[in-house]
Structure formats: C-alpha cells, structure tokens
Amino acid sequence: MAIWRFFKKKRMWLWTSLTVFSLIVAFATHFFIRLPDVSGLKTRNPKKTAIMAMRAKQAEKGGTEYAIRQSWVPFEHIPQILKDTVRIAEDAGFYWHKGVDYDELKEAIKKNIQEKKFVRGGSTITQQLAKNLYLSTEKNLSRKIKEYLIARRLEKALSKDRIFELYLNVIEFGPGIFGIDAASQYHFGCSVSDLTLEEIVRLVAVIPKPLSIDPRGDSPWLRWRCRWLLHKLQLYEYINEETYQEIVGVFEDVSI
Q: 13: helix, coil or strand?
C-alpha cells in the first residue's frame, strides 16, 4: 500500500511537471512565432514605428491633430560626444552586452518587487529600440518578454553601430518629435551636427521623459539630470574640467 502511494505521488509529480513544461513551451513558441523579422533593418530605415502609430491613435481617440516630425541622419554624422552622452545616460555597457544587461535587469526586478509595481525598466538601448519599433509603452511582463526576445534578434542580425543609429533616429523627444535630428531642429533650430554641448545634454536628459519635460525648460528635474550627465562626462574624461565648469553653472539649482 505504501509502495502504491509512493508511485502514485511520483506519477502525479511527473504529470504536473510535464504539464508545466508543456505550458512553458507553448508560451515560448507563441512568442517566437509572432516575433518580427528584423533582418531587413540592415539596409532599410523604418518609415514608421509602433510608438508612432500608438501616439497617432491616442491623438485620434482624443480628437486632436497629430503630425510626425522625423528626419533621418546617418550614424557618422551624429557628433561622437552626443553618442557618448546617450550611452552614459541610457546604457553604459551597450558595446559589451548582447542586448540585455543582466546586472541592471536584476536590479530592476529587485526594485519592482520592493515597490510592487513596474517602476524601473532596466532596458538597454537594444531593448528600447525593440519597444519603439515593434511594441508599446505598456509596463507589463508580457511586453518585457517580447522586448527581450526581439532585442536578442536585433543583436544577432545587426551591428552595434546600426542598432545605435536606428535608436537615435526613432526615439521620442516630444509630441510628434522622433529622432535626434528632428529634435535638434524643433527644439534648437539647427541640425544635430551643429548642437552645442549644453543643447546635447539637454536633449539627452529628457529621453526618459520626452512628453513631460521640455529640453529648453528650467525644471528642477531637468537641471538635476543635466548636472548628473555633465558630471559623468567629466568623470569618464569625455570632457575636461574646464568644459565641465563652464557649462555646469547653467544648471545650478536656483532653489537652493
């Protein structure tokens, strides 16, 4: 009798394990089948992204007009200091990881568990590109899994510089403003190659909050973010002490 109970429990455990495994396989297969083919991005610049379509739909639903401003700029025409500032701000390990920064992801998961909600994304530049091109701004587990899988595809299909070029040309910089060159023209009236360091820092600072923070503004958050970026640029010797001191004063906290 004891032997029968042992085998019965073992059979139930095996059945449960097989069921769970089957569900995981089905779940993964569902995601893989629906993943986009990213190989065309090697030579083709996307004319529209999922985020653009989402914003247009939101505007239509709210009964407001929505115009998209975007002008494509080749990677080699983007100032190196701007690229360095973006990496410092968004993904310092971009050229070393394979699409996912697992240390940052671990910290993000820990923070989200503590807060009991999605408060930290932990997304790399590649993951942000995946979200912009194919997904949405929703914060949920399903989107994060898709983002992870698409990021891995992007890393396998494209060079790091191509991923970075795509990212800089499609990210949001305000209502209807997409890409670093359109942002430069709209906010500062010049092409990206003519931006000053102060203007570069201001634009990069608003990447996490493109719809709520104006890069030309004077909000305490913008001042803090710009000071932080300048400190990092000086710390990692992308700019010298003289340049740092010359510009950081612009962003002094006037409330103190």
A: helix
Residues near 131 by Cβ (< 8 Å), separated by ≥ 6?
50, 51, 123, 137, 143, 147
User: CATH second-level architecture of 79-90+97-171?
Assistant: Orthogonal Bundle (1.10)
Q: What would the 3-class secondary structure string for 150-186 be?
A: HHHHHHHHCCHHHHHHHHHHHCECCCCEECHHHHHHH
Reported as type and span, the H/E element at residue 30 is helix 2-33
pLDDT digits (tens, 9 = 90+) for 112-170: 555 554 444 579 999 999 999 999 888 778 888 999 999 999 999 999 999 999 999 99
Q: Are 81 and 197 in contact (CB under 8 A)?
A: yes
Give the pTM: 0.82
User: Which pair of tokens denotes residue 78?
Assistant: 């983007």
Q: Which of 67, 92, 90 is nearest to 167 (CA)?
A: 90
Domains of the chain: which residue ranges? Answer: 79-90+97-171, 194-256
Single-letter code of the amino acid located at 248: V
